[in-house]
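Fold this sequence, please.
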Amino acid sequence: MLTLKGRTIEKRIEPRAGATLLELALGAGVDWQFNCSRGTCARCRCLVTEGGEHLEESTDAEWDRLGPDELDAGYRLGCQARVAADGGAIAAVNRTYF
């Protein structure tokens, strides 16, 4: 199960392998903030509180925007963080900088 929390809406949905957290949030009607969806603005930044091991490795865009300290703390870019495989619990909260 995937739990996604936006500004005011939280939804639990089935994760879909290959989809980004942003795609899944928008498809579920979660009020997830974003601007570019390419990994450049970092507005879709989120804190993965559970199941980070079920996501693909961090992308170059994430390393450029977030850096090692934030990545180590569990932060990802929603537009870059892709579900690696179906199954496994994942939870993420949209935590934009602004």
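Helices lie at 21-27, 60-65, 67-73. The longest helix spans residues 21-27.
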